[in-house]
Write a structure and sequence with these properties.
transmembrane, copper ion binding, 821 residues, EC 1.4.3.-, Beta-galactosidase, Chain A, domain 5, Nuclear Transport Factor 2, Chain: A, 11-stranded mixed beta sheet, Amine oxidase, binds copper (II) ion, 16% helix, 17-stranded antiparallel beta sheet, binds 2-acetamido-2-deoxy-beta-D-glucopyranose, Cu_amine_oxidase_C_sf, 3 domains, alpha+beta
C-alpha cells in the first residue's frame, strides 16, 4: 500500500500539485523545535518524490511511444484453405481420398477390406497420392487457356489375399467422383515397403518366441526384459534392416534383421550384440532364420541356448543403461549452462506484415511463384516455378534419400536403406516453432491416406514457409577513395524459405527451398539426428571409431536425389557445358624472351547432344559450368539466355557398380545426369527400392541407356548429392547440422540483362549530396522503407497450442503405423 501512496504523490507532483503544497506551513507551526529535522525530512521527501516523478514520467512517455502490434500486410494474404476447384498440383484433398476409398471398396474384384480389418492375408489400400497429370495437357491449361486435366489418384493396394500375393498400383479418376480404375501395374509382394500388419506380426512372433526360449539369456546378458514384467528395464526389437534377396542369394525372399535395443532415449546409439534375422517371405509362416549374438552366428534359439549353457562362447554381461540426465544417448541439456544467465537469442519479425502470399498451396514472393506439395511416397515437391512470370522449372522434387552403411556385423553391414521404404512424405512432420523454423513461419499441413486409418491422417505442420533475413549482403559496393565518384550501395539477402524435415527413424533430413531476390533458387539438404551404431567388437574398428566402451559409430554414405525439370524459356532446351580449359598463348609480342608462352584459361562451349554425353562425373581437372537454355532466346548480343545448375554437395559413391544393393540406387552413379523428359520416367526410385536390387522396379540406369537425343528437347536434370559420414564423438548425442548442408543452385546465367535484384526496395544507397564536399551531407535512399520500424510481433501461442494437442507432435503410443526401420 505504502508503495502506492508514494507513487500517487509524485503523480500529483507531475501535475503541478507540489507548488501549492499546504502541508509545509502546517508542519512549521505545529512542530517548531523539530523544524530542521522536518525540513530535512521534507527535503528528502521532495527529492524522492521528484525522483519517482521522473521515473513515472519516463514510464509514461515510454507508454506514449509504445508501438502497436505489427500490421498485417494490406497486399499479401495467407489463405491455406484449398480452393473450391483444386488446381493440377494440389495434393489429394481429404474429400478426394475418401471418394477414392469408397469407389475402391465398391470394386468387388479387389476384395478390399477397411483399415479396421487389415491383416497380412487381406487386400487393402496401403496409400494413395495425386497422380501427376500429363505435362503437355497441364501446360495447355496453364499457358493456353485449355481445360484443366482431370485429377486422378495413384493407389497402392497390397493383395495378401491372392494365391500369389502382390502389390497393385491403380490410377483412379476422375476426382472427386471417380468412375474408372486403370489396369493394375503389378509389383512383387516381397518388395513392398514397411507395413504395420507385417511388423506387428513379426515383432510379436519374435518376442513371444524369445520369451519362451531365451528370456534367461536376454536378462542375464542385458539386465532387461522383452515385455511383460519390464518397467525400467524394457528391451524391444526396435530397429531393423531389410535384407534383400541379392544379399541372401535366395531369389524371391523377404528377410529383415531386427536389433534388440533398450527402450531408452535413444536406441540407435545403445547397440546390443543381439540381432535376429527373420524370414518374412511367406505371410503365414514367419520364422527365425539366423541369430547373431556375442559375435557368433546361430541357426535358431535352440542352438543358441545349447551353446550358451555349454559355455561355448564368451557370455555378454551388460548393465541395463542407467537412465539419467547425463546418459550420453539422451538429449537433456547438460554441461555448464551458457549463457550463464538466460538471455533470449535474436529473433526476426515482420514490421510490415508478410511479404509473401499463399493461396491454397500456391506461393508468391518477390516475383517468384510456385506450387508446393508433399508426395507421401517421395516427399517435398515444387511445381511450375516461375520468376517474373517466366517458368524456369516445371518440377523440382525430392526423389529419394538413401544411406548405405558398412560394418562387420550383419545387421549394420546390410543396412542399405533406401528411405522411401518408410514413405518419405509421411515422415515429414511436427515442425517446432522456435527450433525447426523461426517463430514468424507459416505452417502448411498435409493430408495422407495411410493403411491403418479410414480418415486421412492430417499432419498439421508438414512445411514451414518464412521470409528470412540471412544477414549476408546480396550485393554491396563502396567507392570512396580519391577523386572517384563516391557512393555506397548494398542490400541484404532476404529470401523466402520453404522447409520440411523428414525423420526416418534415427536420422532427420532438413530440406530447404530458398528463393533469392536475384532470380536464384537454392536447394539444400542437411542431415541431423542420431547415428546408427554397432556393438563394438574389435572387428568393427575397420568401419568406424569406438565412441564408447561398446559403441562403434559405423561409416555410412548419405545420398539424396532430386529431379529438376528445366523449362528455360519453354520446354525445348539445350544442355551446354562451358569448360574451363588451359591454353598456352604466344607471348612473343609482349616479351623480350624468345618463344615466350603465357599460360591462361579459355572457355570451350560444348553442347551435350545425347544422354550418354550428358552424364557428369565430377572431375577436378576439368572444371565446367552446366547451363540450360532455349537456342532461340538470346540477349541482343546473341548470348543464350540460360540458367546455370551449380551443384555444391557432391560425393562419390564408391560401392562397386552392380554389386549388392547398388543397382537399387543406380541414380547415385553420377553426380548429375540429364535426360529427355518422358511421362513414363516420372521418378528415379520407388517405394520398392530397398528390396529390389535383383531387378529394380525403377531402374534409373535405363533412363540413360536408351541414349536419347537431347538437342532442343524437354530436359530433366537429375541431381545427386551426398556426404560420407564417419561418426565422431561430437555426433553424440545427435549429429549437428553444421558443415553437413549439401546444396545446389539454379542461377540465372545471361538470362537477364542485369541483376534483377536491382529492382528490390530492400536496397540502401548512400552518396554525398555534393561529390566535391562531404560537408553538405548525404543523400540516403531507403526506397520507402522505414528506417527504424518498431512494432510488437504477434504473441506466439505455439507452445500452448502444442500442449493442447500433443498428437500434433507425437504419434499415439502403440500406433501400428509407428513401426519403422
Ligand atoms: C487370414 O488369416 C486368418 C488367420 O491368421 C484367418 O482367420 C483368415 O480366415 C484369413 N483370411 C483370409 C482372407 O484368408
Ligand atoms: C479462355 O477460354 C474460354 C472458354 O474456353 C473463353 O471464353 C475465353 O475467352 C478464353 N480466354 C482467353 C484469354 O483466350
Ligand atoms: C562392454 O561390454 C563388456 C563385454 O560384454 C562388458 O563387460 C562391459 O561392462 C561393457 N561396458 C559398458 C560400459 O557397458
Ligand atoms: C526456334 O525458332 C524456329 C523458327 O521460328 C522454330 O522452328 C523452332 O522450333 C524454334 N526452336 C526452339 C527451340 O524454340
Ligand atoms: Cu550420418
Amino acid at each position: 500500500m505504502k508503495t502506492h501512496r508514494w507513487l500517487e504523490k509524485p503523480l500529483q507532483l507531475k501535475l503541478g500539485a507540489m507548488a501549492e503544497d499546504t502541508k509545509v506551513p502546517k508542519l512549521r507551526r505545529q512542530i517548531g523545535r523539530c523544524r530542521v529535522l522536518v525540513a530535512g525530512l521534507l527535503l528528502l521527501l521532495v527529492a524522492m518524490a521528484i525522483a519517482f516523478g521522473v521515473v513515472v514520467i519516463r514510464l509514461q512517455s515510454n507508454i506514449k511511444e509504445l508501438p502497436g502490434t505489427c500490421p498485417e500486410s494490406p497486399i499479401n494474404k495467407i489463405n491455406l484453405d484449398p480452393p473450391a476447384k483444386l488446381p493440377p498440383f494440389h495434393d489429394l484433398s481429404a474429400d478426394e481420398i475418401k471418394q477414392v476409398k469408397e469407389f475402391l471398396y465398391r470394386q468387388e474384384d479387389l476384395k478390399i477390406v477397411r483399415p479396421s480389418a487389415i491383416a497380412l492375408n487381406t487386400s487393402y489400400i496401403y496409400t494413395m497420392e495425386l497422380n501427376i497429370p500429363n505435362k503437355m495437357t497441364t501446360l495447355d491449361f496453364l499457358d493456353n487457356n485449355k481445360s484443366q486435366p482431370r485429377r486422378e489418384a495413384k493407389v497402392f493396394i497390397f493383395r495378401g489375399d491372392t494365391s500369389v500375393p502382390s502389390c497393385e498400383e491403380y490410377i483412379v479418376g476422375p476426382l472427386p467422383n471417380p468412375v474408372y480404375k486403370e489396369d493394375a501395374k503389378t509389383r512383387p509382394f516381397q518388395y513392398r515397403p514397411l507395413t504395420g500388419p507385417e511388423l506387428v506380426t513379426a515383432i510379436k512372433m519374435l518376442e513371444e518366441t524369445i520369451n519362451l526360449k531365451a528370456s534367461r539369456i536376454i536378462s542375464e546378458s542385458y539386465g532387461g526384459q522383452l515385455s511383460g514384467d519390464c518397467k525400467d528395464n524394457c528391451l524391444s526389437f526396435g530397429l531393423l534392416t531389410p535384407m534383400s534377396s541379392v544379399v541372401s542369394g535366395q531369389s524371391g525372399s523377404r528377410k529383415m534383421w531386427f536389433f534388440l535395443t533398450p527402450v531408452v532415449e535413444f536406441s540407435s546409439v545403445q547397440p546390443l550384440d543381439f540381432l535376429v534375422l527373420l524370414d518374412l517371405t511367406n505371410i503365414g509362416n514367419y520364422y527365425i532364420d539366423r541369430i547373431y549374438h556375442a559375435g557368433k552366428s546361430f541357426r535358431d534359439l535352440d542352438e543358441l541356448v545349447r551353446k550358451y549353457d555349454s559355455g561355448s562362447f564368451v557370455k555378454t554381461r551388460l548393465q541395463y543403461p542407467v537412465v539419467s540426465k547425463e546418459l550420453y544417448s539422451t538429449l537433456n541439456r547438460r554441461g555448464t549452462l551458457f549463457p550463464t544467465t538466460p538471455l533470449s537469442p535474436p529473433l526476426q519479425y515482420e514490421p510490415d506484415g508478410k511479404r509473401y502470399s499463399i493461396a491454397g498451396r500456391h506461393i508468391d514472393y518477390m516475383g517468384w511463384s510456385f506450387d508446393v506439395r508433399m508426395a507421401i511416397t517421395s516427399g517435398p515437391q515444387l511445381w511450375d516455378v516461375r520468376f517474373q512470370g517466366r517458368r524456369i522449372v516445371y518440377e523440382l522434387s525430392l526423389q529419394e534419400i538413401a544411406v548405405y552403411y558398412s560394418a562387420n556385423n550383419p545387421a549394420v553391414r546390410f543396412a542399405d536403406y533406401v528411405d522411401s521404404i518408410d514413405l518419405l512424405g509421411l515422415k515429414a512432420r511436427s515442425l517446432v516453432s522456435g527450433a525447426d523454423c523461426p517463430r514468424h513461419s507459416t505452417y502448411i499441413s498435409a493430408s495422407h491416406s495411410i493403411e491403418s486409418m479410414e480418415e486421412p491422417f492430417v499432419v498439421d505442420r508438414a512445411f514451414c514457409v518464412f521470409e528470412h533475413n540471412t544477414g549476408t549482403p546480396l550485393r554491396r559496393h563502396l567507392t570512396s577513395f580519391g577523386t572517384t565518384y563516391k557512393v555506397y550501395e548494398g542490400m541484404e539477402d532476404v529470401v523466402l524459405v520453404v522447409r520440411t524435415i523428414n525423420t526416418i527413424v534415427n536420422y532427420d533430413y532438413i530440406f530447404d527451398f530458398v528463393f533469392h531476390q536475384n532470380g536464384a533458387l537454392e536447394v539444400k539438404a542437411t542431415s541431423t539426428g542420431y547415428i546408427l551404431t554397432s556393438f563394438a567388437f574389435p572387428e568393427e574398428e575397420d568401419y568406424g571409431f569406438r565412441l564408447k566402451d561398446n559403441v562403434t559409430g559405423n561409416i555410412h554414405h548419405h545420398m539424396f536425389h532430386f529431379k529438376v525439370d528445366m523449362d528455360i524459356n519453354g520446354q525445348e532446351n539445350r544442355f551446354e557445358t562451358i569448360e574451363i580449359t588451359p591454353v598456352d598463348v604466344d607471348n612473343t609480342q609482349w616479351s623480350t624472351g624468345t618463344n615466350s608462352k603465357y599460360s591462361q584459361t579459355k572457355i570451350v562451349r560444348k553442347q551435350m547432344k545425347r544422354e550418354s554425353e550428358a552424364v557428369i562425373d565430377y572431375d577436378f581437372s576439368s572444371p565446367k559450368y552446366l547451363t540450360f537454355y532455349n537456342k532461340n532466346v538470346t540477349t541482343t548480343t546473341m548470348v543464350p539466355r540460360a540458367y546455370r545448375l551449380y551443384v555444391q554437395g557432391m560425393s562419390k559413391q564408391t560401392i562397386r557398380r552392380g554389386s549388392g544393393n547398388e543397382p537399387s540406387i543406380s541414380w547415385a552413379r553420377h553426380q548429375l545426369a540429364v535426360t529427355k523428359r518422358k511421362e513414363d520416367e516420372p521418378r528415379s526410385s520407388s517405394i520398392y527400392a530397398c528390396w529390389d536390387a535383383a531387378k529394380p522396379v525403377v531402374n534409373f540406369q535405363s533412363f540413360l541407356d536408351d541414349n536419347e537425343e537431347l538437342t532442343d528437347q524437354d530436359q530433366v536434370a537429375w541431381v545427386t548429392m551426398g556426404i560420407h559420414h564417419i561418426p565422431h564423438m561430437e555426433d553424440l548425442p545427435v549429429t549437428p547440422t553444421v558443415g553437413l548442408d549439401l546444396k545446389f543452385f539454379l542461377l540465372p546465367y545471361n538470362y537477364f540483362d542485369e541483376d534483377p535484384a536491382m529492382g528490390s526496395g530492400d536496397a540502401v544507397r548512400i552518396e554525398p549530396k555534393n561529390q566535391m564536399s562531404l560537408s553538405e551531407g548525404l543523400n540516403i535512399f531507403l526506397y520507402g522503407k522505414k528506417e527504424n520500424p518498431v512494432c510488437f510481433p504477434r504473441k506466439s501461442t505455439f507452445m500452448d497450442d502444442l500442449n493442447k494437442s500433443p498428437e500434433s507432435i507425437f504419434d499415439q503410443p502403440n500406433d501400428d503405423t509407428s513401426y519403422k526401420i
